[in-house]
UniProtKB/TrEMBL annotation:
Lineage start: Bacteria, Bacillati, Bacillota, Tissierellia, Tissierellales
Compartments where found: Cytoplasm
Annotated SUPFAM superfamilies: Carbamate kinase-like
Gene Ontology BP annotations: L-proline biosynthetic process
Function recorded in the entry: Catalyzes the transfer of a phosphate group to glutamate to form L-glutamate 5-phosphate.
Binding-site residues, ATP: 16, 175-176, 217-223
Domain Aspartate/glutamate/uridylate kinase: 11-241
Name the UniProt record assigns to this protein: Glutamate 5-kinase
This protein's GO CC annotations: cytosol
Species whose genome carries this gene: Andreesenia angusta
Keyword NAD recorded: no
EC number(s) recorded for this UniProt protein: 2.7.2.11
Length: 264
């Protein structure tokens, strides 16, 4: 069986969208792309798939609304930006998903909740109940109260934690990159995309580089970490370019899109 064929049976899927996928270069929301994402996930949800959307973007949206300088922000300003931005982001998600008669919910997590047995169980029960009701939970880190001790640090890690929590079949990481390459494609024109990774080895990790966006917090390194977390839990991971959210159709059809990290 081809490695991609196993994706055809995936029913419970976590999709993570990065800040660069949700925003223009200005940092303001890309409403056309968010609308497409809402349409694709709503349509696939109608077909019987179950989705959890892990969404970045709250701090970036808040920074723009409050006219703050991201480079010089204090922790309280960052948390204030998250508070304002999360409310704006959810209002837009509710409106756009609502256009397709799809109900969404908001879940904000911190690492200490997931490290607490009761909190973790409550989160798992809530998410699975929402999925059974046909609702798409939209998850983000609770940056409004998060400090170093209780933060995931990036939404790639958060999405892998969520996928493990609900025993997902597949994690899709959508970003501004096509997948894992043999070298940095921005610097090496001969760089080639790697279609399938059977194991995240040190050699594979050496291919990773940092994020090229001033608005995003993750890079290829955090995505490989997410793939390793999911791999140990029997969950496949795909890294793909989220410029056109309809790529999710192609991924779930088993097409050779992005880089597939096979679980053990």
């Amino acid at each position: 069986m081809d490695a991609r064929d196993r994706i055809l049976d995936a029913k419970k899927i976590v999709v993570k969208v990065g800040t660069t996928t949700l925003t223009h270069e200005s940092g303001k929301l890309n409403l056309n792309r968010i609308e497409k994402l809402a349409r694709v996930l709503s349509d696939l949800n109608n077909s019987g798939k179950q989705f959890i959307l892990v969404s970045s973007g709250a701090i970036g949206v808040g920074v723009n609304r409050l006219n703050l300088d991201r480079a010089d922000m204090t922790l309280p300003e960052r948390q204030a930006s998250a508070s304002v931005g999360q409310a704006i982001l959810m209002k837009i998600y509710q409106k756009l998903f609502g256009e397709y008669n799809q109900t969404v919910s908001q879940i904000l997590l911190t690492k200490d909740i997931m490290d607490n047995l009761e909190g973790k169980q409550n989160a798992e029960n809530t998410m699975n109940t929402l999925l059974e009701l046909g609702i798409i939970p939209i998850v983000n880190e609770n940056d409004t109260i998060s400090t170093f001790e209780i933060q995931f640090g990036d939404n790639d890690t958060l999405s892998a934690t969520v996928a493990s929590l609900v025993d997902a079949d597949l994690l899709i990481l959508l970003s501004d990159i096509d997948g894992l390459f043999t070298a940095d494609p921005r610097k090496d024109p001969d760089a080639k995309i790697i279609s399938v990774v059977e194991e995240v080895t040190r050699e594979v990790e050496s291919l990773a580089s940092g994020s090229g966006s001033e608005f995003g917090t993750g890079g290829m390194i955090t995505k490989l970490t997410a793939a390793k977390i999911c791999g140990k839990e029997g969950i496949d991971t795909i890294i793909a370019n989220g410029e056109d959210p309809s790529i999710i159709y192609n991924i779930l059809d088993g097409e050779e899109i992005g880089t597939l990290f096979l679980s053990r």
